[in-house]
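Saturday, quiet lab. Running sequence design on the structure tokens for the scaffold JK sent over.
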């Protein structure tokens, strides 16, 4: 039987620490971190995420500035808003909730965000810095996963890490973070031959495909660490991950639950990136040379 990694608990600790950092920053410099969250359209899941991000900001003492725009918003209007937020010194972080409605170019939008305010870490500048091993702002979900892995005490050096899923938000940045800690990294995806065998060889499995229980419990090597990024609602209304939890947890040494595993860490890392951006701004340091 494995140890459950409680993302909920680790995230709560991170958030408590950030709250204290925010109080100290305000007291010492008068600067209160500000996060602008832009939501275009009315995707129900995105609305829930944005609401949760706002609540978490408020609890940590971070100003949250919400911009809700209709689905018909043009790209020019959205880019104009981002330009205003880039210029606003009270805004230290800008997050445009993805996915965007059809017709809006995600690439153009993300590339318009000032990289020094890109607390999502999605701008090509920040992605490039991650790839070259000199990160500035790193994507929140994989960053949160690294914190969870560290909480287990695992030494990643030389370990076989298998990531299932190659998204820009999770799979790809995850690979570079694991590589930085000297793991041997394999990224699997929908065209991978014999996924089962790949997972069977893994000391660390990160499942981020968005398909309910796709990774079977008996694929997990005895003693492996299993990180489940998936949140899938199934027919009976309950939430399950991308890994078959019951059987996987009999073999893994550590495993994240769904919900209460990776999810809470994403928001905690978003707050952490925002506080770091505000601190850099208050100290006059530039996160990004210009
Ligand atoms: N949509 C799903 N995850 C994320 C995220 O981490 N950031 C943003 N901006 N949109 C998302």
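Result came back. Writing it out in full:
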């Amino acid at each position: 039987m494995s140890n459950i990694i409680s993302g909920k608990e680790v995230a709560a600790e991170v958030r408590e620490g950030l709250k204290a950092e925010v109080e100290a920053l305000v007291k010492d410099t008068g600067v209160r971190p500000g996060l602008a969250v832009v939501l275009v359209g009315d995707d129900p899941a995105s609305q829930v995420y944005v609401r949760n991000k706002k609540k978490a900001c408020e609890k940590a003492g971070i100003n949250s500035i919400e911009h809700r725009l209709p689905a018909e918003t043009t790209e020019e209007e959205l880019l104009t808003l981002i330009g205003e937020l880039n210029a606003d010194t009270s805004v230290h972080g800008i997050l445009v909730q993805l996915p965007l409605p059809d017709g809006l170019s995600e690439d153009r939008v993300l590339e318009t965000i000032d990289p020094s305010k890109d607390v999502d870490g999605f701008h090509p500048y920040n992605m490039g810095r991650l790839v070259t091993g000199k990160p500035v702002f790193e994507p929140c979900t994989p960053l949160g996963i690294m914190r969870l892995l560290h909480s287990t005490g695992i030494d990643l050096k030389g370990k076989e890490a298998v990531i299932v899923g190659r998204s820009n938000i999770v799979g790809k940045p995850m690979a570079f973070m694991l590589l930085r800690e000297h793991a041997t990294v394999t990224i699997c995806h929908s065209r991978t031959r014999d996924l089962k065998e790949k997972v069977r060889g893994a000391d660390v499995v990160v499942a981020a495909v968005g398909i309910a229980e796709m990774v079977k419990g008996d694929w997990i090597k005895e003693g492996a660490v299993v990180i489940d990024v998936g949140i899938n609602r199934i027919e009976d209304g309950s939430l399950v991950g991308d890994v078959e939890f019951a059987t996987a947890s009999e073999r893994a040494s550590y495993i994240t639950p769904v919900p209460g595993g990776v999810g809470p860490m994403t928001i905690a890392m978003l707050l952490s990136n925002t506080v770091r951006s505000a601190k850099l701004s208050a100290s006059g340091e530039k996160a990004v040379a210009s």
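Notes for JK: DSSP finds ten helices and eleven strands in the chain. Residues 55 and 141 are 18 Å apart (CA to CA). Ask whether to fix the surface positions before the next round.
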